Amino acid sequence: MRQLIKTRFVFLLPGLFFMSLFVLVPIASIFFISFYSWNLLSPMRFIGWANFKRMISDKYFWNSLVVTFKLMGLGVPINFFLSLSLALALYREDRFSKIFRAIFYWPCLMPAIAGATMWKWMFSYHTGLFNYILRTLGLSPIYWLEKPLNALFSVVLSGIWGVGFFMMMFITGFQNIPQELIEAARIDGANRWQTFWYVTFPCLKNTNLLVLMVSVAYSLRSFAGIYALTGGGPGYATTNIALYIYRSGLTQFRIGYAYAMSVVYFVLALVVGLIILRLQREE
Amino acid sequence: MGRKLFVIILSIFFMLPIFWSITSSFKGIGEIFSYPPTFFPKNPTFEGYIKVLKEHDFLLYLRNTLFVAVVATLLTVPVCLMTGYSLAKGTFRSRKFFNGLFAWTLFITAEVTMVPLFIVIRGLGLVNSIWGMIIPAVYTPTGTFAAVQYMRDIPNELLESAKIDGANEWQIFWRIVVPLSKPLMATLSIFSFTWRWNDFVLPLIVVNKKSLFTLQLALASIQEELGPYDWTAVLAFSNLTVIPTLIIFLLFQRWFMRGIMTGGLKY
């Protein structure tokens, strides 16, 4: 006991307790309960690999993976370039930059459900502002949420409200670049673009990768926003892996099956996470 | 010049959904569904807001949310502080291992373990209990890591000299670490409150009794229920849940900006 106090291990105990209970235990249980059939009412029944076999032949499961990666493939590049250009425009410490940084950051603080509600109202076919603008311009209105492909794009579009956070990551990166480097390039006659392209951008290599991977991680875990914007629909068009697991497990109570899919989800999240940690360590 | 124009145009696009949901929330039922829509409300009305307060139990959900957010914050801040202190300044041999173990929980969010987490919460008998939305949130990876980073900057000499002066480990923590961590505690409290206020996943899996709903959970269900008929009320409800986050942001803007720039805090 004295040793525990002396080495300050004792201060770790409360955090360790709660972390184990609500992170480690759920994760450990994934690897057991995924071999059972269970609907919460009847007792658990061991069924071996059946849940995993079913998963492999379940087209909705594959669809949920495809949706997850489509959202990532569309959203991550958009977020990356948007946040990089915003950071380039706003990294200086002047009044203009500070005000607009706050404006772009604040949607990140908004509750996801309220945010999705606002976007849903924007996307409304008859009464939404987007279609109002299209009609005013003489264009035909769009079914933003009612058609599969459109719904996917609308989810990505509403996701740009998250760029403020990545913008801040870039700005931090910019501010860590030694100013002498940039001035030296200027003195040597490089113009703004050349300075950016040959000095700033290469210096940001690590920040770039970090932003990229963190935005992959956020994309992978998107749930609440989609839940409230499209509910995963139309059909299964925007049902990503998180939504599909939620549906299977907590609305249809196919618990064992949801656990089996959680194995896949967990591995994806873990791999992305380990890459991020690696990048952070290098920084 | 080009940069300012780009920023201003983009910011207008960013603010459009907020603008549209504020103006629409003051339109009467007749006007909100009129076609083509009006840009500003012709006859502004508080109908939606009154309905939300009178018919849709806004105040009940507000009370639940405040309780969850305040109690969870009171519990999580000391836990973050202790964990961060131990991971940053501990001298036990396995400190590196535990740093790694805690670090990767950053990526195992409630979304990833939703169903297993539900089963654990159910096993503890916390389903449909307000504590089910509080206790699982006591440990927060992001908060813990902000604390670790902050504690690393506390000079070891300070802790050593206190020890030489005869202070024991508890006294060092209480008399040196805690007072030095006031800015950290403020940041963590603001963030933790906002996290709980905004949270959706935990309430969704823990609670299905309406009397225990938090604001975001209630908003999701009201949007589903009333969406087709009464957007005035839906938007009024939604706007009311956003106002406190806006106030917190305006008051503590500097903390938020500094928090993400130094501690990598999300939200």
Task: Explain this structure.
The complex is a heterodimer of chains A (283) and B (267). Chain A is mostly helical. Helices cover 72% and strands 1% of the residues of chain A. Chain A is built from 15 helices and two strands. In chain A, strands 1-2 form a two-stranded antiparallel sheet. The longest helix of chain A is centred in the N-terminal third of the chain and has 32 residues, at 59-90. The model of chain A has no long low-confidence stretch (mean pLDDT 90). Chain B contains 13 helices and no strands. In chain B, helix 7 (141-152) packs antiparallel against helix 10 and helix 8 packs antiparallel against helix 9. With 267 residues, chain B is mainly alpha-helical. The mean pLDDT of chain B is 89. Helix content of chain B is 71%, strand content 0%. Chains A and B meet through helix 2, helix 4, helix 5, helix 6 and helix 7 of A and helix 1, helix 4, helix 5, helix 6 and helix 9 of B. Chain A: The chain crosses the membrane at residues 12-36, 71-91, 103-122, 151-174, 195-218, 224-245, 257-277.
Broad CATH class of the domain at 57-206 and 239-263 in chain B: Mainly Alpha
Computed CA radius of gyration of chain B, to the nearest angstrom: 23 Å
Total strands of chain B: the figure is: 0
| Structure annotation, total helices of chain A | 15
The helix/strand class of chain A is mainly alpha
By DSSP (H or I, 4+ residues per run), the number of helices of chain B equals 13
Biggest interface, which chains?
Answer: A-B, 91 and 92 residues
What is the CATH topology descriptor of chain A? MetI-like fold
Membrane topology (chain B): Multi-pass membrane protein
Organism (chain B): Thermotoga petrophila
Main location (chain B): membrane
Transmembrane segments (chain B): 66-88, 100-124, 130-151, 172-195, 231-252
